[in-house]
Amino acid sequence: MADVGPGVGKIKGDNAESTDDYVSFLLAQEEPRPPITWNNWWKEVYWGRGVTLMVVMPLCTFFAAYHTPLYTNTAIWMTVYYFMSGMGITAGHHRLWAHRSYNAARVLEYLLALLAAASVQGPIIWWARGHRAHHRYTDTDLDPYNARQGLLWTHIGWVIAKPRRRHGKVDVSDLKRNDIVMWQYRYYPWLVLAMAIAFPTLVAGIGWGDWKGGYVYAAFLRLVIVHHSSSCVNSLAHWLGEAPFDDKHSPRDHLFTALVSLGEGYHNFHHQFPMDYRNAFKWYQYDPTKWLIWLCSKIGLASHLKTFPENEIQKGMLSMELKHLFKKQEELAWPHGGLPVVSWATYKSQAELRPLLCIAGFIHDLEGFMDEHPGGKHILCQYIGKDATAAFFGGVYNHGNAAHNLLAMKRVGMLQCGTPHVTEEKYIPPSQLLRVAHVKELSNQAVY
Ligand SMILES: [Zn+2]
Ligand SMILES: [Zn+2]
Q: What is the distance in A from the centroid of ligand 1 to the CA of 204?
């Protein structure tokens, strides 16, 4: 997404040399608000959207639910409407409007705008602006739900308390040109009343006469659940799970988060490939939002579904796998460098005093290993003070990885000039003779 605000050229012109990067530069432009204390907290919270909607409303709902019987029809309707209104956020606010990951037919766009209003998470344009800032400035003070401030902040704190910084600027001009987005913005309070409260109550009331159950469960309890389901994407999805694509920032992939957020839990993938209409790129991974969008494309309600090239996705995964392998490699002990370089004569004379063995130009000390050799001590004794390269590499036995690794740990010196003349050996079976290969034998290899 394109950002408004100072571009790179502007930063340079504004003497950005004193700042580390673009985010630091932006943060330096504005003083943060004073910290929240016992003396000022009541001025620093959002009483409407924060205290009333996120604290008082849920408490009243739990109290009402405790005193209201839950009928099967209403429970089913509450669950269905949870999915429907949740999709308004995941397929609408998030993947359609914030990320433009597909095109929706007007009827689908209206439907998603209505269902999103039933989730009461602010108008599309407000939500998308914050979310684009979240992606653009992830894990910084310009991110409205900065994961570095802890789980409580990302889950609910940022909705209740006023931020110490304004979130970073982003471009939402495309949304301002969208008549459905602006229609939803204009009539938002009315749409909320109609879709979040009236509609679910009416369905249960007219449908099976459970007006109170529809009001308490399908309208309000469902709303509380949807709020926390969406909040999990900001909190859990930046805390729980793996980072198979990039661990530079906090987003993580986890099935549990996906289960509670209609498929938004593959968040590490999502932050790497934000314009992909999928959050979980494998078709069978739990992502009902992805399945819905795909289904809509099959019946003509959605088109231009964006996917990142599989090759680039695999590259991201490979980078992380290599990183893990490198870390594992660093945890292991490896052969020492800086070995003394000795002549063939020195090697031979010292091998009379202790069991030294020369293989591939390295001299190995077999002290304590002679009796441990799986092929027996006798074979080793034949080669002490000699060059056992050919024997080790197949002349006697073609050793595998374990032997190579173990042998390398026993290096105590390097032979000057690499290896002695084979003529110095008196009894060499034909299979052990070293020879220069013919170029035709190496035709599959690069020849310089
Ligand atoms: Zn995120
Ligand atoms: Zn996103």
A: 35
Residue 66 has pLDDT above 70, yes or no: yes
Q: Residue 2: pLDDT above 60?
A: no
Distance from the CA of 98 to the center of ligand 2, in angstroms? 7
**CA neighbours within 13 Å on the CB side: how many for 247?**
14
Closest ligand to the CA of 98: 2
How far CA 202 is from CA of 66, 67, 188, 205, 217, in Å, comes to 21, 20, 20, 5, 12
Centroid of ligand 1 to alpha carbon of 382 (angstroms): 65
Q: How many CA atoms lie within 13 A of 132 on its CB side?
A: 24
* SS3 (DSSP) at 104: strand
Ligand 2 mean position to 218 CA, how many Å? Answer: 27
**If you average pLDDT over residues 123-134, what whole number do you get?**
97
Q: Which residues of 402-432 are buried (b: 16+ CB within 10 A; e: fewer)?
A: eeeeebeebbbbbbeeebbeeeeeeebeeeb
Distance 239 CA to ligand 2 centre (A): 16
Over its C-alpha atoms, the chain yields an Rg (Å, rounded) of 34
Give the number of whichever ligand sits closest to the CA of residue 128.
2
Going by pLDDT thresholds of 50, 70 and 90, the confidence category of residue 439 is low
Which one of the ligands is nearest to 100 CA?
Answer: 2
Please tell me the number of the ligand nearest to residue 134's CA: 1
Is the predicted pLDDT of residue 444 greater than 80, yes or no? no
Q: How far apart are CA 149 and CA 238, in angstroms?
A: 11
